[in-house]
Amino acid sequence: MKIDIITLFPDMALAPLSDSIMKRAQAAGLVEIQAHNLRDWATDKRRTVDDAPCGGGQGMVLMPGPLFAAVEELKTPHSKVILMTPQGTVFQQATARELSEETHLILLCGHYEGVDHRVIEQLVDLELSIGDYVLTNGAIAAAVVTDAIVRLLPGALGDARSSVEESFTDPHLLEAPVYTKPNSFRGHDVPAVLLSGDHKKILEWKSHAAKQRTQENRPDLGEC
Ligand code: ADE
User: Fold this and answer.
1) Residue 109, domain extent
2) Over 70: is that where the pLDDT of 21 sits?
3) Closest by alpha carbon to 74, among 38, 48, 26?
4) CA nearest to 140, candidates 3, 6, 14
5) How far is the CA of 54 from the centre of ligand 1 (A)?
6) pLDDT of residue 224
7) Is the CB of residue 131 below 6 angstroms from any atom belonging to ligand 1?
8) Do residues 6 and 29 share a domain?
């Protein structure tokens, strides 16, 4: 898989992808990740990429020219072009799974007041938001989406079970709490059932605890 990130802040996008599992996945050749500076496709001496919004309003809007030129240079017949924007559909694990099947992703990072809408109409296949809050730009969002996709590539996780098991878990339920040693810490004990060796009881406890946690933390997930 190849992932090209087009942003005004390539270092910001790459920093979270330069360590740990993301670093190993790239070193192993599972994915090639490149971040490009949008200003490289500006056509004037000052490397301008934005202008005032037509009809007035706050801030600056990314111009279509540099974004079209960047995508046209990087695009292949199999590319999927994604715009990171708080106006997009909210990124979910199911989307990460679908996108992990693609061969080439081009992630465009918005900035300022957004991007000229002709980019969205003519160039973009999918608009993605990583949540209902506004970041200063899309570079961090692109890194988040990239991480969630790359960890699903076969061989990316050391223990292959981790992502396989996840795909069988109920998307309407959070995971049950987990514990490790010591069995007693500052007067707080690991639930006895988890130390009982009774696998049926342990599964029942996990199912109940997962439902309770979902009700408390994410009642919007429903089906509890
Ligand atoms: N750019 C700014 N905020 C964002 C968000 N929540 N998701 C994706 N891109 C963004």
Assistant:
1) 2-150
2) yes
3) 38
4) 14
5) 22
6) 42
7) yes
8) yes
